[in-house]
Structure to design on (561 residues):
């Protein structure tokens, strides 16, 4: 054992690994793991020269809970609540990726009504996720009031969802072959009302925040990420679309009934934090469009396939299923050996790829701009660490 | 250059005024938050509290549970534990005591009786899989919202005792 390492009190393992530098006038700074702008336990090691960042390195693993290993131990239905705990903001998309993978490998048919219910609830959840990002991002940038408005809207959506799913945040709603509960007229009416309300609210959000020139000074031409950088790190979702590439899993490889709806994939080629901001603001409106179309053409029928297996036992083989989450492409690669639980389940978290490019992008920026860049990536740490 | 910066500043100031208008509009709106300890929300529809046992229609002191253990098996957090009397032993005993009714009795006696049903709420993840997997509909969600305690032991809940307490209370209210 290297005793020098133990005697050295200049930091922990990561700090020591990070330490060696050619310059002697810089300072090593820990941003996190408890920092208000990292939204959880993300730690970023920064080498700073005055206010400027020379190097940055994210340190992960503070909230690693072995979700992939749990899939190998638990039976398939037992794993149902788990995906929601990885990304607590867009829980339903993760749940969808899991049930979708199992349905694909077992060849379970999902009734049309269930598909529509999934689309409606998943999009409502996406709006919720973006609303929280919007409020929290502005909180990072120093604007306190907007989060109050966004939580006002979030509460209404969560009340609507609570009646149907039983949860407010970490939903466990999708089942193999459908959903756990049917939606009723009250849900449909309340959702319609909320959609109409949200349209008015978006105008207010634009007046209050988007057009505000203090915000524009903080986000415009800050954190420019080229499409090449996005491709290099595998960034997806609003980060990629904010760099000008209109890639969306819902359009690129349509799953469920998304190919029946008319919606746009917003993309901005400004490549800066404002581009990513605008993508999310537009995406909420597109989600409302999808919900309204789905409610108009909601078919009758079963909400779960009558022959859906209670104890799923997929045949041996492997399958990949990807959905579009609020943060990007959520993928689940399931390898089954024909047993009661998965042989291996690989979770592809979009946040991990989106965070990876931070080290490159933040070089040479101010610390306050780095906060703005981090916020614009919309990181959910439990999803990154899994 | 100067003209441009002046124009930019004016436009920026105007955007602040527009934002101020939104704020002042909302300032005169009624309060939408609930001041919790003094007030509480009206409806908690769909709220899933911890699970509780559903009483039998005939005897409110007994549960509908048939002790099939499917909730124990499906629970991802392994927080349910139940004990039931063994049906075979009971059948043999009663059969020895009362020989005449031997023939029609076995079907009835084959039912195991629930002795205890304990939920460790500390580990429960509120997924609701137990309620859905129950073949006899013996589980439901309670509407206990305001749960708080000083020790972990307070959340190890004996649901059978709770059921009997509820039945007693209900009986007292009725009678």
């Amino acid at each position: 054992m290297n005793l020098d390492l133990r005697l050295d009190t200049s930091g922990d393992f990561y700090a020591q690994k990070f330490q060696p530098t050619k310059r002697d006038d810089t300072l090593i700074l820990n941003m996190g793991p408890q920092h208000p702008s990292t939204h959880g336990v993300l730690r970023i090691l920064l080498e700073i020269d005055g206010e400027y960042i020379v190097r940055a390195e994210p340190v992960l693993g503070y909230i690693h809970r072995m979700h992939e290993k749990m899939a190998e131990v638990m039976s398939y239905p037992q794993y149902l609540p788990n995906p929601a705990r990885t990304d607590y903001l867009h829980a339903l998309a993760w749940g969808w990726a899991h049930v979708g993978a199992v349905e694909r490998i077992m060849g379970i048919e999902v009734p049309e009504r269930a598909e529509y219910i999934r689309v409606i609830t998943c999009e409502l959840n996406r709006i919720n996720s973006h609303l929280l990002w919007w409020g929290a991002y502005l909180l990072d940038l120093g604007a306190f009031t907007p989060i109050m408005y966004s939580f006002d809207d979030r509460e209404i959506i969560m009340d609507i969802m609570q009646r149907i799913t039983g949860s407010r945040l970490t939903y466990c709603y999708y089942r193999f072959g459908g959903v756990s509960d049917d939606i009723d007229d009250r849900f449909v009416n309340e959702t319609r009302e909320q959609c109409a309300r949200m349209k008015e609210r978006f105008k207010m959000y634009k007046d209050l925040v988007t057009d505000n020139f203090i915000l524009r000074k903080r986000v415009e031409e800050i954190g420019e990420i080229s499409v090449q950088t996005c491709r290099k790190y595998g960034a997806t979702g609003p980060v990629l679309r904010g760099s000008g590439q209109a890639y969306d899993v819902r359009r690129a490889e349509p799953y469920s009934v998304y190919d029946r709806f008319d919606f746009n994939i917003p993309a901005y080629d400004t490549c800066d934090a404002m581009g990513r901001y605008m993508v999310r603001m537009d995406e909420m409106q597109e989600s409302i469009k999808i919900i309204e179309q789905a409610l108009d053409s909601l078919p009758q029928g079963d909400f779960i396939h009558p022959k859906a297996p209670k104890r799923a036992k997929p045949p041996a083989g492997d399958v990949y299923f990807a959905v579009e989450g609020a943060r990007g492409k959520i993928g689940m690669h399931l390898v089954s050996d024909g047993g009661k639980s998965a042989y291996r389940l690989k979770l592809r978290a979009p946040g991990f790829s989106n965070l990876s490019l931070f080290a490159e992008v933040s070089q040479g920026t101010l610390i306050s701009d780095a906060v703005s860049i981090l916020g614009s990536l919309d990181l959910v740490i439990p999803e990154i660490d899994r | 250059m100067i003209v441009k910066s002046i124009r930019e500043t004016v436009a920026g100031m105007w955007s602040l005024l527009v934002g101020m208008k939104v704020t002042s509009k909302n300032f005169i709106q009624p309060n939408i938050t609930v001041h919790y300890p003094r007030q509480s929300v009206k409806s908690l529809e769909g709220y899933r509290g911890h699970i509780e046992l559903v009483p039998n229609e005939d005897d409110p002191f007994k549960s509908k549970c048939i002790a099939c253990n499917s909730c124990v098996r499906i629970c991802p957090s392994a927080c349910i534990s139940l004990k039931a009397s063994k049906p075979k032993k009971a059948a043999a005993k009663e059969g020895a005591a009362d020989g005449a009714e031997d023939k029609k009795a076995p079907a009835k006696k084959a039912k195991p009786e629930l002795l205890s049903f304990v939920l460790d709420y500390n580990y429960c993840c509120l997924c609701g899989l137990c309620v859905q997997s129950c073949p006899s509909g013996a589980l439901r969600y309670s509407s206990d919202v305001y749960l708080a305690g000083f020790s972990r032991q307070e959340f190890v809940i004996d649901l059978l005792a709770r059921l009997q307490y509820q039945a007693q209370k209900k009986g007292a209210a009725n009678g």
About this structure: The CA atoms of residues 90 and 152 of chain B lie 36 Å apart. Chain B is about 40% helix and 10% strand.
